[in-house]
Design goal:
Number of strands: 9
CATH topology: Rossmann fold
Largest sheet: 9 strands, mixed
Number of helices: 9
Strand order of the largest sheet: 1-9-8-7-6-4-5-3-2
Strand content: 15-25%
CATH superfamily: Alpha/Beta hydrolase fold, catalytic domain
Helix content: 25-40%
Structural class: alpha/beta
CATH class: Alpha Beta
């Protein structure tokens, strides 16, 4: 495994102090259906990339949004799964953020509106992820990179696992790469950082994740691989890049996932960012680290899609 530790820029340190102070004065993030509008408003504030266009579409029977660039290579695409603890989040709200990756990587991306709990609990998100992947293939796209953040990062790894297995049986092309940002890989919440970073994480709490997990999984064992990719068979996995903030309660979810990928004899790159919080690359207007991380992601995606 290649691990890179990114030291905090002085300007980012000041920005994070200000952001933490602001968050401390606000109500805790609501990872219930009541919090959907606020979450979408927050994600929609990511600056828009001027060279990217957006198009509502349906792929494999799953609605969502395309983020398109005129510089895209035919036959390639990103399949991006949005975050939101399987309860909040939407493709429309994520257009600007994913568009920033598209502009840098010069490849189109489809963001599916996979099923959210409690209306469509587990395994609806997995089923929609499978359908979207197969839908891209049916549309003539054979080189696919799977990306996602937070719960969407975990879902991206689940779908990458399933499509890698499908490829062994000749049922789908294997994903060429995966990239996850602040991924939730262990819905059993057993990572050390759930407690060791609890006082440092300004955005997430173990209690909020536990409530979201119950909403999503119900009585399902959280260690089933379709819910928690940390416990999946990772044989033959494509190259994976993981980004995580050092101050996140999900820090060890990323670290242990990277270790598991390498143990399965597949390549993994882990990037740990000093002082950064959950899904920090979305804060392009505030953090220098955000643009730096997205540049790294885009280079990785571009190189693997065109290899």
């Amino acid at each position: 495994m290649t691990e890179t530790y990114h030291k905090e820029h002085l300007l980012d340190r000041a920005a994070m102090v200000a952001m933490r102070a602001m968050i401390a004065l606000q109500p805790a993030a609501d990872l219930s259906p009541d919090g959907r509008a606020a979450f979408d408003d927050l994600m929609g504030r990511t600056p828009r990339a001027d060279t990217v266009t957006y198009e509502a579409a349906e792929i494999g029977g799953v609605p969502g949004w395309w983020c398109r660039t005129a510089e895209a290579t035919p036959g390639t695409a990103i399949l991006y799964f949005h975050g939101g603890a399987y309860v909040v989040g939407s493709a429309q709200a994520y257009r600007n953020f994913v568009g920033q990756i598209v502009a840098r990587a010069k490849v189109d991306a489809f963001i599916p509106d996979y099923g959210l709990a409690p209306e469509r609990p587990f395994p609806a998100a997995v089923e929609d992820g499978d359908a979207a992947y197969h839908g891209l293939v049916a549309a003539g796209i054979s080189r696919i990179a799977i990306l996602g953040d937070s719960a969407g990062g975990g879902l991206a790894l689940v779908i990458a696992t399933r499509m890698t297995a499908a490829a062994r049986n000749g049922l789908a092309p294997k994903p060429v790469a995966a990239v996850v940002i602040s991924p939730w890989t262990d819905l059993a919440l057993t990572g050390d950082s759930m407690t060791t970073r609890a006082a440092h994480d300004p955005l997430l709490t173990g209690e909020a994740l536990e409530r979201a997990r119950i909403t999503y999984l119900g009585a399902t064992d959280p260690k089933v691989p379709e819910a928690s990719p940390l416990y999946a068979d990772l044989a033959g996995f494509p190259p994976v890049m993981l980004h995580v903030g050092e101050d996140e309660i999900l820090l060890t979810d990323a670290q242990r996932m990277a270790d598991s990928i390498v143990t399965a004899s597949s390549p993994a790159e882990l990037h740990v960012w000093q002082g950064m919080a959950h899904v920090f690359p979305a804060n392009l207007a505030l953090l220098k680290a955000a643009a730096q991380a997205l540049d790294i992601v885009a280079t990785f995606v571009r190189l693997n899609l065109r290899a």
